[in-house]
Amino acid sequence: MLSTQPTPLPKIEDVIVIEEESAASYVKSEGDDLEGSTVGRTDFTETEQRKILRKIDFRLLPILGAMYAISLMDRTNLGLAAVAGMNSDLNLIGNRYTIIIMVFFVMYIIFEIPSNLMLSKAGPANWLAFLGVAFGSILIGMGFTKSFETMAICRALLGATEAGFLPGCTFLISCWYKRLGAFWILSVIVSGFAAVFAYVLTLLKGKHGLNGWQWIFIIEGAITVVICVIGWFLIADFPEKAKFLTLKERQYAIERINDDRGDGEQDKITLRLVIHHLADPKLYAFSFMLMSSTLPGYAYSYFLPIIFKEGLGYSTSKSQLMSAPPYILAAILTYTSSWLADRFQIRGPVIAFHQAMTFTGMLITAFAESTGARLFGAYLGIGFLQY
Protein backbone atom coordinates (compact mmCIF):
# COMPACT_ATOMS: atom_id res chain seq x y z
CA MET A 1 0.00 0.00 0.00
CA LEU A 2 1.04 3.55 -0.58
CA SER A 3 2.08 5.45 2.49
CA THR A 4 -0.30 8.17 3.60
CA GLN A 5 2.46 10.04 5.40
CA PRO A 6 3.42 13.29 3.67
CA THR A 7 6.81 13.38 2.08
CA PRO A 8 9.12 15.56 4.16
CA LEU A 9 10.25 18.75 2.48
CA PRO A 10 13.95 19.33 1.89
CA LYS A 11 15.75 21.70 4.19
CA ILE A 12 16.25 25.24 2.99
CA GLU A 13 20.00 24.61 2.77
CA ASP A 14 19.32 21.87 0.24
CA VAL A 15 16.74 23.87 -1.68
CA ILE A 16 19.10 26.76 -2.24
CA VAL A 17 21.50 24.62 -4.22
CA ILE A 18 18.81 23.59 -6.69
CA GLU A 19 19.66 24.98 -10.12
CA GLU A 20 18.05 28.32 -10.73
CA GLU A 21 15.99 27.17 -13.69
CA SER A 22 14.44 24.33 -11.71
CA ALA A 23 13.77 26.43 -8.61
CA ALA A 24 10.71 28.12 -10.05
CA SER A 25 9.23 24.84 -11.35
CA TYR A 26 9.87 23.22 -7.95
CA VAL A 27 7.99 25.96 -6.16
CA LYS A 28 5.19 25.83 -8.70
CA SER A 29 4.75 22.05 -8.66
CA GLU A 30 4.94 21.82 -4.88
CA GLY A 31 2.70 24.85 -4.31
CA ASP A 32 0.12 23.19 -2.04
CA ASP A 33 2.69 21.26 -0.01
CA LEU A 34 4.74 24.40 0.59
CA GLU A 35 1.98 26.16 2.47
CA GLY A 36 3.55 27.59 5.58
CA SER A 37 7.09 26.46 4.76
CA THR A 38 10.13 28.69 4.43
CA VAL A 39 10.14 28.45 0.63
CA GLY A 40 6.38 28.56 0.10
CA ARG A 41 4.07 31.12 1.62
CA THR A 42 6.56 33.49 3.12
CA ASP A 43 5.94 35.28 6.37
CA PHE A 44 8.22 38.29 6.12
CA THR A 45 7.53 41.11 8.53
CA GLU A 46 6.41 44.44 7.10
CA THR A 47 9.90 45.83 7.62
CA GLU A 48 11.44 42.89 5.75
CA GLN A 49 8.91 43.24 2.94
CA ARG A 50 9.74 46.92 2.52
CA LYS A 51 13.43 46.04 2.45
CA ILE A 52 12.86 43.51 -0.34
CA LEU A 53 10.79 45.99 -2.34
CA ARG A 54 13.48 48.65 -1.93
CA LYS A 55 16.03 46.15 -3.23
CA ILE A 56 13.85 45.48 -6.28
CA ASP A 57 13.18 49.19 -6.77
CA PHE A 58 16.85 50.09 -6.61
CA ARG A 59 17.77 47.44 -9.16
CA LEU A 60 14.91 47.81 -11.64
CA LEU A 61 13.12 51.15 -11.35
CA PRO A 62 15.89 53.45 -12.62
CA ILE A 63 16.85 51.39 -15.68
CA LEU A 64 13.34 50.24 -16.62
CA GLY A 65 12.02 53.75 -16.12
CA ALA A 66 14.80 55.18 -18.28
CA MET A 67 14.26 52.63 -21.07
CA TYR A 68 10.50 53.07 -20.93
CA ALA A 69 10.81 56.84 -21.08
CA ILE A 70 13.46 57.05 -23.80
CA SER A 71 11.38 54.88 -26.14
CA LEU A 72 8.45 57.29 -25.79
CA MET A 73 10.72 60.25 -26.40
CA ASP A 74 12.22 58.67 -29.53
CA ARG A 75 8.91 57.90 -31.19
CA THR A 76 7.33 61.29 -30.56
CA ASN A 77 10.19 63.68 -31.36
CA LEU A 78 9.18 64.01 -35.01
CA GLY A 79 6.85 66.97 -34.44
CA LEU A 80 9.55 68.81 -32.49
CA ALA A 81 12.03 68.16 -35.32
CA ALA A 82 9.47 69.31 -37.90
CA VAL A 83 9.27 72.84 -36.50
CA ALA A 84 13.07 72.94 -36.07
CA GLY A 85 13.70 72.87 -39.82
CA MET A 86 13.19 69.24 -40.88
CA ASN A 87 10.15 69.96 -43.05
CA SER A 88 11.92 72.60 -45.09
CA ASP A 89 15.29 70.78 -45.31
CA LEU A 90 13.70 67.54 -46.54
CA ASN A 91 11.07 69.32 -48.66
CA LEU A 92 8.18 67.68 -46.82
CA ILE A 93 5.48 69.31 -48.90
CA GLY A 94 1.92 68.12 -49.29
CA ASN A 95 1.25 64.91 -47.38
CA ARG A 96 4.87 63.82 -47.09
CA TYR A 97 5.04 64.54 -43.36
CA THR A 98 1.93 62.43 -42.83
CA ILE A 99 3.47 59.60 -44.87
CA ILE A 100 6.60 59.38 -42.73
CA ILE A 101 4.33 59.22 -39.68
CA MET A 102 2.17 56.51 -41.27
CA VAL A 103 4.96 54.15 -42.40
CA PHE A 104 6.17 53.92 -38.80
CA PHE A 105 2.82 52.53 -37.65
CA VAL A 106 2.42 50.18 -40.62
CA MET A 107 5.68 48.45 -39.69
CA TYR A 108 4.86 48.70 -36.01
CA ILE A 109 1.61 46.75 -36.52
CA ILE A 110 3.28 44.10 -38.69
CA PHE A 111 6.17 43.41 -36.33
CA GLU A 112 4.60 43.83 -32.89
CA ILE A 113 3.29 40.29 -32.36
CA PRO A 114 6.42 38.56 -33.77
CA SER A 115 8.57 40.78 -31.58
CA ASN A 116 6.49 40.00 -28.50
CA LEU A 117 6.83 36.27 -29.20
CA MET A 118 10.60 36.68 -29.39
CA LEU A 119 10.59 38.33 -25.98
CA SER A 120 10.08 35.09 -24.06
CA LYS A 121 12.41 33.08 -26.32
CA ALA A 122 15.37 35.46 -26.24
CA GLY A 123 14.72 36.77 -22.74
CA PRO A 124 13.57 40.33 -21.91
CA ALA A 125 17.05 41.63 -21.11
CA ASN A 126 18.57 40.35 -24.36
CA TRP A 127 15.66 41.28 -26.60
CA LEU A 128 14.92 44.73 -25.17
CA ALA A 129 18.60 45.67 -25.27
CA PHE A 130 18.86 44.48 -28.89
CA LEU A 131 15.77 46.43 -29.94
CA GLY A 132 16.89 49.55 -28.09
CA VAL A 133 20.36 49.56 -29.65
CA ALA A 134 18.77 48.91 -33.07
CA PHE A 135 16.27 51.75 -33.06
CA GLY A 136 18.72 54.06 -31.30
CA SER A 137 21.16 53.50 -34.17
CA ILE A 138 18.39 54.12 -36.71
CA LEU A 139 17.51 57.34 -34.92
CA ILE A 140 21.12 58.49 -35.23
CA GLY A 141 20.92 57.70 -38.94
CA MET A 142 17.79 59.84 -39.25
CA GLY A 143 19.91 62.80 -38.22
CA PHE A 144 21.94 62.44 -41.41
CA THR A 145 19.11 61.96 -43.91
CA LYS A 146 19.02 64.28 -46.89
CA SER A 147 15.72 63.38 -48.57
CA PHE A 148 12.11 62.48 -47.91
CA GLU A 149 12.63 58.97 -49.30
CA THR A 150 15.51 58.19 -46.96
CA MET A 151 13.60 59.54 -43.96
CA ALA A 152 10.59 57.38 -44.88
CA ILE A 153 12.79 54.26 -44.99
CA CYS A 154 14.34 55.15 -41.63
CA ARG A 155 10.91 55.67 -40.10
CA ALA A 156 9.76 52.29 -41.41
CA LEU A 157 12.79 50.59 -39.86
CA LEU A 158 12.17 52.52 -36.65
CA GLY A 159 8.63 51.15 -36.52
CA ALA A 160 9.84 47.58 -37.04
CA THR A 161 12.41 47.77 -34.24
CA GLU A 162 10.31 49.77 -31.78
CA ALA A 163 7.28 47.49 -32.24
CA GLY A 164 8.12 45.15 -29.38
CA PHE A 165 10.01 47.55 -27.14
CA LEU A 166 7.24 49.41 -25.33
CA PRO A 167 5.04 46.30 -24.93
CA GLY A 168 8.12 44.41 -23.73
CA CYS A 169 8.93 47.05 -21.12
CA THR A 170 5.31 47.10 -19.97
CA PHE A 171 5.22 43.30 -19.74
CA LEU A 172 8.47 43.14 -17.78
CA ILE A 173 7.35 45.88 -15.40
CA SER A 174 4.09 44.02 -14.79
CA CYS A 175 6.07 40.90 -13.85
CA TRP A 176 7.55 42.78 -10.93
CA TYR A 177 5.00 45.41 -9.93
CA LYS A 178 1.29 45.34 -9.14
CA ARG A 179 0.66 48.83 -10.55
CA LEU A 180 1.98 50.73 -13.56
CA GLY A 181 0.92 54.18 -12.38
CA ALA A 182 4.43 55.35 -11.50
CA PHE A 183 5.73 54.40 -14.94
CA TRP A 184 2.86 56.14 -16.71
CA ILE A 185 3.46 59.28 -14.69
CA LEU A 186 7.16 59.06 -15.55
CA SER A 187 6.31 58.74 -19.25
CA VAL A 188 4.06 61.81 -19.04
CA ILE A 189 6.76 63.90 -17.39
CA VAL A 190 9.33 62.75 -19.95
CA SER A 191 6.97 63.75 -22.77
CA GLY A 192 7.02 67.28 -21.39
CA PHE A 193 10.76 67.19 -20.79
CA ALA A 194 11.29 66.00 -24.38
CA ALA A 195 9.98 69.30 -25.69
CA VAL A 196 12.39 71.30 -23.52
CA PHE A 197 15.27 68.96 -24.36
CA ALA A 198 14.51 69.31 -28.08
CA TYR A 199 14.70 73.09 -27.73
CA VAL A 200 18.11 72.80 -26.05
CA LEU A 201 19.38 70.53 -28.83
CA THR A 202 18.21 72.93 -31.54
CA LEU A 203 20.64 75.47 -30.05
CA LEU A 204 23.38 73.30 -31.59
CA LYS A 205 22.21 74.45 -35.01
CA GLY A 206 25.22 75.06 -37.27
CA LYS A 207 27.61 72.83 -35.30
CA HIS A 208 29.51 70.59 -37.74
CA GLY A 209 27.21 71.79 -40.51
CA LEU A 210 24.11 70.18 -39.01
CA ASN A 211 20.72 71.77 -38.45
CA GLY A 212 18.97 71.77 -35.08
CA TRP A 213 16.48 69.00 -35.99
CA GLN A 214 19.39 66.71 -36.92
CA TRP A 215 20.94 67.11 -33.49
CA ILE A 216 17.61 66.10 -31.91
CA PHE A 217 17.78 62.71 -33.61
CA ILE A 218 21.52 62.19 -33.21
CA ILE A 219 21.78 63.02 -29.49
CA GLU A 220 18.57 61.24 -28.47
CA GLY A 221 19.58 58.20 -30.53
CA ALA A 222 22.98 58.07 -28.85
CA ILE A 223 21.37 58.33 -25.40
CA THR A 224 19.05 55.45 -26.32
CA VAL A 225 21.94 53.20 -27.31
CA VAL A 226 23.86 53.90 -24.09
CA ILE A 227 20.83 53.35 -21.82
CA CYS A 228 19.86 50.08 -23.50
CA VAL A 229 23.40 48.70 -23.32
CA ILE A 230 23.41 49.45 -19.58
CA GLY A 231 19.98 47.82 -19.35
CA TRP A 232 21.34 44.58 -20.78
CA PHE A 233 23.60 44.26 -17.73
CA LEU A 234 21.06 45.33 -15.10
CA ILE A 235 17.67 43.93 -16.10
CA ALA A 236 16.49 40.78 -14.34
CA ASP A 237 14.16 38.90 -16.66
CA PHE A 238 11.63 37.50 -14.17
CA PRO A 239 11.36 37.22 -10.37
CA GLU A 240 12.16 33.49 -10.43
CA LYS A 241 15.45 34.24 -12.24
CA ALA A 242 16.55 37.24 -10.19
CA LYS A 243 20.05 36.45 -8.95
CA PHE A 244 20.13 39.58 -6.80
CA LEU A 245 17.39 38.07 -4.61
CA THR A 246 17.56 35.00 -2.40
CA LEU A 247 15.31 32.06 -3.24
CA LYS A 248 12.93 33.03 -0.44
CA GLU A 249 12.82 36.64 -1.65
CA ARG A 250 12.11 35.49 -5.20
CA GLN A 251 9.18 33.46 -3.96
CA TYR A 252 7.86 36.48 -2.07
CA ALA A 253 8.05 38.59 -5.25
CA ILE A 254 6.07 35.92 -7.13
CA GLU A 255 3.49 35.57 -4.35
CA ARG A 256 3.01 39.33 -4.20
CA ILE A 257 1.95 39.40 -7.86
CA ASN A 258 -0.12 36.22 -7.51
CA ASP A 259 -2.00 37.64 -4.54
CA ASP A 260 -2.86 40.71 -6.60
CA ARG A 261 -3.86 39.12 -9.93
CA GLY A 262 -2.79 35.45 -10.00
CA ASP A 263 -0.19 35.53 -12.79
CA GLY A 264 3.16 35.73 -11.03
CA GLU A 265 4.67 32.85 -13.00
CA GLN A 266 5.48 33.08 -16.67
CA ASP A 267 3.02 31.18 -18.88
CA LYS A 268 4.14 28.96 -21.73
CA ILE A 269 2.85 30.37 -25.01
CA THR A 270 0.69 27.83 -26.85
CA LEU A 271 -1.82 28.10 -29.70
CA ARG A 272 -4.59 27.05 -27.33
CA LEU A 273 -3.67 29.82 -24.88
CA VAL A 274 -3.57 32.40 -27.68
CA ILE A 275 -6.99 31.34 -28.97
CA HIS A 276 -8.36 31.41 -25.43
CA HIS A 277 -7.35 35.05 -25.00
CA LEU A 278 -8.48 36.02 -28.50
CA ALA A 279 -11.95 34.75 -27.59
CA ASP A 280 -12.14 37.03 -24.56
CA PRO A 281 -14.37 40.05 -25.37
CA LYS A 282 -12.56 42.14 -22.75
CA LEU A 283 -9.48 42.04 -25.01
CA TYR A 284 -11.32 43.99 -27.70
CA ALA A 285 -12.89 46.38 -25.21
CA PHE A 286 -9.47 47.24 -23.80
CA SER A 287 -8.05 47.51 -27.34
CA PHE A 288 -10.72 50.04 -28.26
CA MET A 289 -10.05 51.99 -25.07
CA LEU A 290 -6.32 52.00 -25.81
CA MET A 291 -6.98 53.20 -29.36
CA SER A 292 -9.16 55.96 -27.94
CA SER A 293 -6.17 57.16 -25.91
CA THR A 294 -3.31 56.64 -28.36
CA LEU A 295 -5.08 58.29 -31.29
CA PRO A 296 -5.33 61.74 -29.66
CA GLY A 297 -2.01 61.13 -27.89
CA TYR A 298 -0.07 60.74 -31.13
CA ALA A 299 -2.07 63.51 -32.75
CA TYR A 300 -0.87 65.92 -30.08
CA SER A 301 2.69 64.53 -30.10
CA TYR A 302 3.16 64.84 -33.86
CA PHE A 303 1.13 67.97 -34.57
CA LEU A 304 0.95 70.19 -31.45
CA PRO A 305 4.28 71.96 -32.15
CA ILE A 306 3.15 72.48 -35.75
CA ILE A 307 -0.20 73.86 -34.56
CA PHE A 308 1.64 76.29 -32.30
CA LYS A 309 4.00 77.42 -35.06
CA GLU A 310 1.91 77.38 -38.20
CA GLY A 311 -1.57 77.65 -36.72
CA LEU A 312 -0.96 80.12 -33.92
CA GLY A 313 2.10 81.89 -35.31
CA TYR A 314 4.61 81.20 -32.54
CA SER A 315 8.34 80.98 -33.18
CA THR A 316 10.18 77.65 -33.33
CA SER A 317 11.52 77.97 -29.78
CA LYS A 318 8.14 78.98 -28.33
CA SER A 319 6.39 76.18 -30.21
CA GLN A 320 8.73 73.65 -28.63
CA LEU A 321 8.71 75.11 -25.14
CA MET A 322 4.94 75.63 -25.07
CA SER A 323 4.46 71.92 -25.86
CA ALA A 324 5.83 71.00 -22.42
CA PRO A 325 3.47 72.53 -19.78
CA PRO A 326 0.36 70.50 -20.77
CA TYR A 327 2.23 67.31 -19.91
CA ILE A 328 3.04 68.60 -16.43
CA LEU A 329 -0.69 69.09 -15.90
CA ALA A 330 -1.21 65.57 -17.27
CA ALA A 331 1.22 64.11 -14.72
CA ILE A 332 -0.67 65.79 -11.86
CA LEU A 333 -4.05 64.62 -13.13
CA THR A 334 -2.74 61.09 -13.78
CA TYR A 335 -1.50 60.78 -10.22
CA THR A 336 -4.68 62.26 -8.74
CA SER A 337 -7.01 60.10 -10.80
CA SER A 338 -4.97 56.94 -10.17
CA TRP A 339 -5.17 57.55 -6.42
CA LEU A 340 -8.91 58.21 -6.55
CA ALA A 341 -9.59 55.17 -8.72
CA ASP A 342 -7.65 52.88 -6.40
CA ARG A 343 -8.98 54.46 -3.23
CA PHE A 344 -12.66 54.22 -4.18
CA GLN A 345 -12.45 51.38 -6.75
CA ILE A 346 -14.11 53.44 -9.50
CA ARG A 347 -11.77 52.89 -12.44
CA GLY A 348 -14.51 52.71 -15.09
CA PRO A 349 -16.13 56.09 -14.33
CA VAL A 350 -12.72 57.76 -14.00
CA ILE A 351 -11.62 56.43 -17.40
CA ALA A 352 -14.90 57.55 -18.98
CA PHE A 353 -14.51 61.05 -17.51
CA HIS A 354 -10.94 61.34 -18.83
CA GLN A 355 -12.01 60.19 -22.29
CA ALA A 356 -14.82 62.74 -22.37
CA MET A 357 -12.48 65.57 -21.35
CA THR A 358 -9.91 64.52 -23.94
CA PHE A 359 -12.59 64.46 -26.63
CA THR A 360 -13.73 67.94 -25.62
CA GLY A 361 -10.17 69.26 -25.56
CA MET A 362 -9.43 67.95 -29.05
CA LEU A 363 -12.55 69.59 -30.48
CA ILE A 364 -11.59 72.93 -28.92
CA THR A 365 -7.99 72.61 -30.20
CA ALA A 366 -9.19 71.84 -33.71
CA PHE A 367 -12.10 74.25 -34.16
CA ALA A 368 -11.71 77.16 -31.76
CA GLU A 369 -10.90 80.46 -33.44
CA SER A 370 -9.06 82.34 -30.69
CA THR A 371 -5.51 81.53 -29.64
CA GLY A 372 -6.43 81.34 -25.96
CA ALA A 373 -9.23 78.86 -26.58
CA ARG A 374 -6.99 76.56 -28.64
CA LEU A 375 -4.34 76.67 -25.93
CA PHE A 376 -7.00 75.78 -23.37
CA GLY A 377 -8.11 72.91 -25.60
CA ALA A 378 -4.54 71.57 -25.77
CA TYR A 379 -4.19 71.69 -21.98
CA LEU A 380 -7.58 70.02 -21.51
CA GLY A 381 -6.95 67.33 -24.12
CA ILE A 382 -3.43 66.40 -23.05
CA GLY A 383 -4.13 66.87 -19.35
CA PHE A 384 -6.86 64.22 -19.27
CA LEU A 385 -5.36 62.03 -21.99
CA GLN A 386 -2.72 60.13 -20.07
CA TYR A 387 -4.71 58.21 -17.45
Automatic annotation (TrEMBL):
Keywords: Membrane, Transmembrane, Transmembrane helix, Transport. Residues 60-387 form the Major facilitator superfamily (MFS) profile domain. Its main location: membrane. GO terms for cellular component: membrane. It comes from the Eukaryota. The chain crosses the membrane at residues 56-73, 93-113, 125-144, 150-173, 180-201, 213-235, 283-304, 324-341. It is found in: Membrane. It is a multi-pass membrane protein. GO terms for molecular function: transmembrane transporter activity. This is Major facilitator superfamily (MFS) profile domain-containing protein. It comes from Pseudogymnoascus verrucosus.
